[in-house]
Design brief:
The chain contains 4 helices and 4 strands. It has a 4-stranded mixed β-sheet.
């Protein structure tokens, strides 16, 4: 399994090591441990820009995922499953428990999208 985690925000602190272990467990449970996934933590401002550009929605959101097997160049995806972006500011605001719990839930949600599931 190849899970790459990048933190591109500075506003929210979290236990990165614990989160990484839990996210790796989610990947194994989903049965996609042989695939590559990138997770990027962003600020509300950064995910707002992405949401506006790629989804036409002019506001911040909690998470956005981009499946590698969709769109132009999908035939070259190979073992890459896709990319997940999570706003830690939004995650912190909507968390019912810890920020780490919310990140795991958002990651699982996004991973299911990368695997081809939708909200329906």
């Amino acid at each position: 399994m190849s899970l790459v985690i990048l933190n591109r925000q500075r506003a929210i602190r979290f236990d990165r090591k614990t989160v990484a272990l839990r996210l790796e467990a989610v990947v194994r449970a989903a049965g996609v441990e042989d695939r590559e996934v990138a997770l990027v933590f962003l600020s509300d401002a950064a995910i707002h820009r992405m949401n506006r550009k790629w989804r036409g929605i002019d506001r911040a959101t909690d998470c956005i995922s981009f499946a590698a097997c969709e769109g132009e160049g999908a035939q070259y995806a190979g073992s890459v499953l896709g990319d997940i972006f999570i706003s830690l500011q939004t995650a912190e605001r909507q968390a019912r428990g810890s920020i780490e719990d919310e990140v795991v839930a958002l990651f699982a949600h996004s991973l299911l999208h990368l695997m081809g599931h939708d909200h329906g």
